[in-house]
Amino acid sequence: TLDINAALLKIMRFPDEATFREEIAGLQGGLVSADARNRMTEMLASEGSISGFEAEVNRRDGTSAWMRLDVGLVYADDGALVSYDTVVIDVDDRKRAESDLRWSDAQRRQLLKRVITAQEEERQRIAQGIHDDAVQVMTAVNLRLSVFRGHLLDPEQSALAEELEETVQLSIGRLRSLVFDLTP
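Structure (tokenized):
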């Protein structure tokens, strides 16, 4: 005989034991998937019991829930199988929370990827702006200083212009290093 407690009826959404017995007898596929049934059968055959087996079960109302099953075989004195001693524990909330955590982790990874991509794009934009604007302007200034220095007759002014060229060249080098550092 099948003994069913009120907690299992509530979990499985059956109004009473009679309805449970009646509808379970008519189920071709049972409450669990064929794969889960096969794995349970293999475990019982090889180990003689099942401990901590988790499976998704089909409820009466068409929803599903996760259950933990512990099954022991009960034998008579002559070695004949008398019954299955089964404990069913509702683990649906935990399994759904685990699923939510996996989903949250996936969302967090996706968000982090988008943040990194945005940072890299911004760095690339800044580097391009420095290269296309500041470095080009500084290079033009350096060329004009060189031409200007060539027209100077006073050696002191020429030396001063040369110092300015070196300073501009140093600035161009630093800007290029910055562009290199900013490039992702």
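Strands lie at 49-58, 64-75, 81-90. The mean pLDDT is 86.
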